[in-house]
Amino acid sequence: MSSTAAEKGSSTSIFNAAVIVAALGYFVDIYDLVLFSIVRVPSLKGLGLAGQQLMDDGLFLINMQMFGMLVGGVFWGILGDKKGRLSILFGSIITYSLANIANGFVNSIDMYAALRFIAGIGLAGELGAGITLVVEVMPKEIRGYGTMIVAGVGVSGAVLAYFVAEAFDWRIAYFIGGGLGLALLILRIGVYESGMFSKVKDSETKRGDFFSLFTNRERFERYVRCVLVGVPLWVVVGILVTFSPEFAAAMGVKDPVSGGRAIMFCYVGITLGDFLTGYLSQRLQSRKKVLFAFLVFDSLCIAAYFLMNKIFPMPTADTVYMIVLLLGLSSGYWAIFVTVAAEQFGTNLRATVATTAPNFVRGSLVPMTWLFRSFVPSLGLVGAGIATASIAMTIAFICLWGLHETFGKELNYTETI
Fold first, then answer.
1. In the chain, helix, strand, coil percent, each to 5?
2. According to the model, what pLDDT value does residue 190 have?
3. Position 157 in a domain
């Protein structure tokens, strides 16, 4: 990189090129990430499935996507610290865009599963790269606003996914998502690499050593806490909201509940929550206080979800959507979660952590759905949901207690490996 480019690898503006590209990239990322949850039923019916297969094969395909994100998180994270933030930002966009276009041509569950796995690999890189780039190019006093914009704009991609899926056949919805990703690559012009990374790249500092996160006890505990704080969000989205039609029926809701509509309302709430948590963290000058407050709020909303037939004598589909909107709002601490993960570690491991942490959270859906299904025979559908959510929330509170406050932290340093 030229010296001019390196000098441009920082910005005092909230609306700079890095923020805009990262936000739009995450917008398309979320569109593609939740599209399967929205088109699960019509796409599986289109492949000839029915009844219990819609849930069983739906869980299988979600798990394949999430497993791909686990693999991709490690791959893109290491690459981001070795080659640069921009290399994963755009490499991941190309991967998930092509995979989602191919999803429009599936004709079997095996093919669907393979392509959701590849799409998951691609979807794993964008957020971590974008957040890492933004926190490194912005002043420490306002970088929370930058990550707030990235996450807030990004998660609204789920709303677009819902309306596209409502207006078009599920195959066309996949084509549109892939096309949006490829169109986004044009915006690469004018985005410069992080100045912090450029300095480390030119030194002898060891970078992107994923296994070093496990060889030092203090660093390992720091990393695990970062990951587990975010698990409740994906239990809410991946289990409570994705399978809200089944939960609603089990709790006596007479109206049919649309899974796609529930996802849309959830992500409207998450969008608002991301903006709110980002703003509050800047006003309160604390990440931990906001995380704690929203975990408490999330616990209350989960309780309301499972008690809806007690709180409302005759709950309707609109009741479910209202509670799901609140669930999304209370789970909208994703921006703060990823920001904290990025701020916890030095420049030579920052992309590795910021990319793997959210993907391990997403990947945690695999063991959480296994746990959920193992509870169903003895506790029933609703009891299994309560038990799974309670375990995730308890772990998150414990891990938050040990995290360091990172608001205003100086990030121009490296980890000793």
1. 75, 0, 25
2. 61
3. yes
CA distance 172 to 388: 35
- Residue 6 domain-assigned (yes or no): no
Domain count, the chain: 1
Among positive and negative, which fits the CA dihedral 284, 354, 414, 145? negative
Q: Of 306, 313, 311, 335, which Cα lies nearest the Cα of 128?
A: 335
Q: Is 291 left (phi over 0), alpha (psi -120 to 50) or beta?
A: alpha
Task: Give the C-alpha distances (Å, rounded to integers) separating 313 from 163, 193, 254.
Answer: 31, 56, 12
* pTM for this entry: 0.81
- CATH number of the domain where residue 342 is located: 1.20.1250.20
CA angle 89, 95, 99 (to 5 degrees): 145
Nearest to 153 by CA among 238, 39, 31: 31
Average pLDDT, the chain: 88
DSSP assignment of 257-311, as one string? PPHHHHHHHHHHHHHHHHHHHHHHHHHHT-SHHHHHHHHHHHHHHHHHHHTHHHH
Q: Which helix (DSSP H) or strand (DSSP E) does residue 182 occupy?
A: helix 170-184
Q: CB-based contacts of 416: which residues, under 8 Å, 6+ apart?
A: none
Per-residue pLDDT reduced to its tens digit, 225-254? 999 999 999 899 889 998 899 999 999 998
Residue 393: give the domain boundaries. 11-190+211-401
Note the pLDDT tens digit of each residue in 30-71.
898 888 888 888 999 999 888 888 878 888 898 898 889 889
How far is Cα 377 from Cα 379, in angstroms, rounded to an integer? 6
Q: Is residue 206 part of a domain?
A: no
> Comparing C-alpha atoms, which of 332, 304, 295, 163 is closest to residue 247?
304
12 CB burial (10 A radius; 0-12, 13-18, 19+): exposed
Both tokens of residue 3?
Answer: 């010296």
Alpha-carbon distance of 194 to 89, in angstroms, equals 12
Who contacts 120 (Cβ-Cβ below 8 Å, separation ≥6)? 64, 65, 66, 67, 68, 69, 70, 71, 72
Amino acid code (one letter) for 227: V
